[in-house]
Amino acid sequence: MSDHRFSSVPTEEEPGCCHLSRKVKVCLCVLLCVLLCVLVAVAVVVGVLMWPRATPPRAWNGTGSTPHFSEIVLGRCFTYTQLLRPELGHADCGQIGKAFTNAFLSKDPCHSSEQDYQLLLKLTSQTIPCHSSVFWSKSTQLAHLYTRVRQDMFTLEDTLIGYIADGLNWCGDAGSYEMNYQSCPHWRKDCINNPVSVFWDTVSKRFAENACGEVQVVLNGSVSNTFDKNSTFGRVEIHNLHPGKVSVLKAWVMHDIGGVYSYHTCSSPIIDDLKFILSKRNISFTCEDDYRPIKFLQCVKSPEDSSCRK
Ligand code: JS2
To answer: Domain span at residue 200?
Structure first.
């Protein structure tokens, strides 16, 4: 039997593949395998490090996210765009739902920003007719009772984005893809830049920026802070009204029926503060106590009250 090692003629089992000896080929294979193993190992390590650790989300002092948040958002979006305001039927509720959750999921719930909500604002943009924007402060029920009857008037919660989010709570956690249903930051006890507070400031700012013509605000004269500079209305909305678009802000100072005490009326200094801020912004101001159409709504609930017989 002839001995190969010395023959320069390539043997049949070593077809001329770049003339590499078996040993070299074996070494190369081993090297490739090792390289592959290293790559896989690195990928696994990185994956484990990057994978959101399943540690429980941080405990906060506020209530947790509303159960079934995403389903509620989607359902409300379709109800609003298909039933309540079909002129918005073109809105993409799937996109809107995603944009909403992506605004806060896997993010630190104490560093939420207006930027997080820009896509959501874009997907829910809505033109509110002039003379129909209704702001409110410490009087959510009365304001919404009024716009439920006057369907041509809009509070923020009568717009698509306000309708979708009204009464809900939501937050995520930087170390998880999940919503935090256990707890969310409380605006005073934990942090002010939490997803919910930032959201309402952001959408309230846009609602004010879009307002035009005569705009109105429902205020509560039966509480001590009828006009509160630190409220969303006093801190965000009056400062984002455009003097060039808004001709006058009409305040309706309502008082609880059967209310033992009326803290403030249109002639109270606290209302002068509001008037002063607006005058500095070249926006005219009028004020009416117990604006009759809303008073009528209050009287529907308490027809026997003496103030309802006048
Ligand atoms: C609604 C919520 C929630 O003019 C109104 C609306 O446009 C509103 O966005 O902001 C104004 C009322 O806020 P304000 O003056 O702070 O009144 P308030 O009664 O002290 O506070 C109500 C909370 C306003 C922001 N907000 N608005 N629906 O679910 C909701 N959650 C929060 N935090």
So the answer is: 69-308
